[in-house]
TrEMBL record:
Residue ranges of every copy of the Protein kinase domain listed in the record: 12-332
Name of the protein in question: Protein kinase domain-containing protein
InterPro entries recorded: Kinase-like_dom_sf, Prot_kinase_dom, Ser/Thr_kinase_AS
GO MF, one example: protein serine/threonine kinase activity
Organism this protein belongs to: Yarrowia lipolytica (Candida lipolytica)
Signal sequence interval, chain numbering: none
Pfam families registered for this protein in UniProt: Pkinase
Gene Ontology, cellular component aspect: nucleus
Length: 332
């Protein structure tokens, strides 16, 4: 074990919780992040064995991909519902797996919010935006390029991350290199989840690719590129809100997200998005025809818009690869 102070149920209880997922908790101790997972409670697409295998494979191979420092089995002091193991005192605890990483204090969402500036109250129009986004375009492109470089590596290894979002891009300092974390729902070529029968209930909210929204199970690693493009667009919006919206009066809606994507990028056709032409959900919907000029509403120069134009194509076959994104950002 890398550090005895990290181990033991009693120590874990005293640690600071810094994050929580459906089947995991994340703690910080001594500049380490401990992700505690109960495999027995997991449901697809969450898969601890696959996550661990991927982390062991990519460990130390790319500076923009998180490196696993250690992992071990621990007893969970919070639950005793299944996967039981006995403690020294005879008390029953639930088994959990612990993944140990370096601790990164900042997410990309933290950095983004730091550039959101409040509009002076007297200048706010009725129902208008209350914030202005000042995130520097050059910094946004640098971050996206670094993450794309990491994606290029994992994609070459047959891995799809499947949950690219600002909260999964971490920083040691506000000016350090970004590090992509959380491979909890990632897909690996050759695993039990077949390539043409992948789970589509992956990704998060407004960062999800359209092929996931329409249930196209044979998707590929371009879903990561779409999500990364959404993040670049988010960093360049004028009001500091995500570029695409899924908000409805009583919550969020995938249908609302689809409509907003079509409105901003133009309504797709069988020519611009051949993969969806025979999908029943697409054929049964009637969307108003729009040309889409959403990218023109973003801040920044033509360079960032050209990059986004390639990252946010409907057809995965025409969408930029991770290597393309790196090349575009360096040559434009």
């Amino acid at each position: 074990m890398i550090d005895d102070v990290l181990l033991g149920c009693t120590t874990l209880v005293k640690m600071k919780e810094i994050g929580r997922g459906l089947f995991s908790r994340v703690y910080e101790k001594n500049n380490r992040a401990l992700k505690c997972i109960r495999p027995g409670a997991q449901r697809p697409p969450h898969n601890f064995a696959r996550e661990l295998a991927i982390l062991q494979e990519v460990k130390g191979h790319h500076p923009n991909i998180v490196s696993l420092l250690d992992h071990y089995e621990e007893r969970d002091p919070f639950d005793s519902s299944d996967d039981e193991m006995w403690g020294d005192s005879g008390q029953v605890f639930t088994k959990q797996q612990v993944l140990v990483f370096n601790y990164y204090p900042y997410t990309l969402e933290d950095l983004a919010k730091g550039y959101h500036k409040a509009i002076f109250p007297t200048l706010i129009e009725p129902g208008g935006d209350t914030m202005r986004n000042k995130f520097p375009e050059e910094k946004a492109i640098e971050i996206i390029t670094a993450v794309a470089s990491g994606l290029e590596y994992i994609h070459q290894e047959g891995i799809i991350h499947r949950d690219i979002k600002p909260e999964n891009i971490m920083f040691k300092t506000k000016d350090s290199e970004p590090v992509l974390i959380d491979f909890g729902v990632s897909w690996k070529d050759g695993g039990s989840e077949k390539a043409d029968e992948k789970i589509t209930d992956v990704g998060t909210g407004v960062w999800r690719a359209p092929e996931l929204l329409f249930g196209i199970r044979g998707y590929d690693d371009k879903v990561d590129i779409w999500s990364l493009g959404c993040i670049l667009a988010y960093l360049l919006t004028r009001n500091g809100k995500p570029f695409f919206s899924n908000e409805v009066q009583d919550g969020v809606s995938d249908l609302r997200l689809v409509a907003d994507i079509f409105e901003k990028l133009g309504t797709p056709s069988a020519k611009t998005w051949p993969e969806v032409a025979c999908v029943p959900a697409f054929e049964s919907m009637n969307f108003s025809e729009t040309q889409g000029n959403g990218l023109s509403l973003l801040r920044g120069t033509q360079k960032s818009k050209d990059i986004l134009q390639e990252m946010l194509k409907y057809s995965a076959h025409k969408r930029a690869s991770a290597a393309d994104v790196v090349e575009l950002s360096r040559t434009n």
